[in-house]
């Protein structure tokens, strides 16, 4: 009790609630590990070439007789059709080890870092994305037939080597050039790399940077351009669905279709390439709009919901 100015006793004021300490701001996500992983992905591609040489040395013992014999064997091995399959196998395994290894060192859960979550948006959105990705492939095939793209020695050599495969080698090609990149490249680029950029700069910049690096890592203008555009498409799909699985399905489908076409003999597109290019481009734009539309207007949706819930 405390007396007032008339001498009357007044009750003590209630105690102040305890002060809750304000938590410190979260540190900004470092991006140097992401760029380090990008560099290591290039190392993995070089190691894939090294695997071709290792298999050649084990296959041809005469390569160990002299440096000149080794040079001849390595030159012969790199021109064999099976070389592309051996190299692709090594690169994909390297990408997988790199993605899971880097994710395990992150302070975030592996499933969160690699976006191994259940997709949002429903199966219809995935079907729409599949149509868009196959249409994008059609756009580039038509543009190539129209002479709008620079000639790619990498793609020509790959097509020639794949066309000369036979028997079980064709199945191997479908596995390591068609299906495997859809899994391991997505784990690395749309999984670890894009997620790292997204935590620092947001989904739009993060997906764009990951797609640009994905294109550069192909080390070819035409193939890299397609990879970059497809990578951004798949990156935005990953952000929309908050999951890597739709991008894996789309990427694997695209590569498998392209591989089967290369394994066959018919490479020409039916119909007029200019007409095909126009309509396929239209499909790509429409599907992309349906995918990224809700991402582009989150503020308007929030404001509309607030107005609806506010009293009149």
General description of the model:
The chain has 312 residues and is mainly alpha-helical. It has one domain (29-293). The chain is built from 12 helices and 2 strands, in the order ββαααααααααααα. The protein has helices spanning 32-59, 67-78, 81-104, 110-113, 123-145, 153-163, 168-201, 203-216, 221-241, 245-263, 273-296, 298-309, and strands spanning 2-3, 9-10. It has a two-stranded antiparallel ribbon with strand order 1-2. Strand 1 (2-3) and strand 2 form a beta hairpin. Helix 3 packs parallel to helix 7 and helix 9 (221-241) runs antiparallel to helix 10 (245-263).
Task: For this entry, give a set of tags.
312 residues; mainly alpha
How would you describe the shape? globular
Mean pLDDT: 86
* Total number of distinct structural domains: 1
Helical region count? Answer: 12
Tell me the major beta sheet: 2 strands, antiparallel
Distance between the termini: 48 Å
Helix content bin: over 70%
Question: What is the subunit arrangement here?
Answer: single chain
Strand content: under 5%
Uncertain residue ranges = 300-312
Secondary structure class reads: mainly alpha
Order of helices and strands: EEHHHHHHHHHHHH
Strand order of the largest sheet: 1-2
Rounded to an integer, what's the Rg over CA atoms?
27 Å
E-strand count: 2
What is the fold's blueprint, element by element?
Elements: E1 2-3, E2 9-10, H1 32-59, H2 67-78, H3 81-104, H4 110-113, H5 123-145, H6 153-163, H7 168-201, H8 203-216, H9 221-241, H10 245-263, H11 273-296, H12 298-309
Antiparallel strand pairs: 1-2
Helix pairs in contact: 1-2, 1-3, 1-7, 3-7, 5-9, 5-10, 5-11, 7-8, 7-10, 8-9, 9-10, 9-11
